[in-house]
Design goal:
It contains three helices and four strands, in the order ββαββαα. It has helices at 28-35, 71-80, 86-100; strands at residues 6-13, 19-25, 45-52, 61-64. Strands 2-1-3-4 form a four-stranded antiparallel sheet, covered by helices on one side. A hairpin with an 8-residue loop joins β3 and β4 (61-64). α1 (28-35) runs parallel beside α3 (86-100). The termini are far apart.
Length: 102
């Protein structure tokens, strides 16, 4: 079993800018299956961050719905480094498109 060093954090963001973490996921399949959802009364915004475990650094990336601008290119280095498979990257991009549909 591979120890994962990258985690996905999902948040809902209120109109006043405050946010609530709604999940932390170690795999793209779990993120896509369980993390891409809105919880009642937590705000209309949605933010997705990629963070490194045991690090005091800023997130590796942060993207907001509905467009998640730049995520496709931002994830490419992690497929080269074998942190995220090409298949998982493609499935995440598809899941984000479905999640953002009106």
């Amino acid at each position: 079993m591979k120890f994962r060093r990258l985690y996905w954090v999902t948040e809902q963001v209120a109109t006043d800018g405050s946010s609530h973490v709604t999940g932390v996921y170690t795999s793209v399949p779990d993120l896509a299956d369980h993390g891409l959802r809105y919880m009642a009364n937590l705000g209309p915004g949605f933010r997705l961050s990629l963070v490194q475990l045991d690090s005091t650094n800023l997130p590796l990336g942060t993207w907001t719905a509905p467009a998640f601008d730049g995520i496709e290119d931002a994830l490419k280095p992690y497929t080269v480094g074998d942190e995220i498979t090409d298949e998982h990257r493609e499935s995440l991009l598809e899941a984000l498109k479905l999640f953002s549909r009106p």
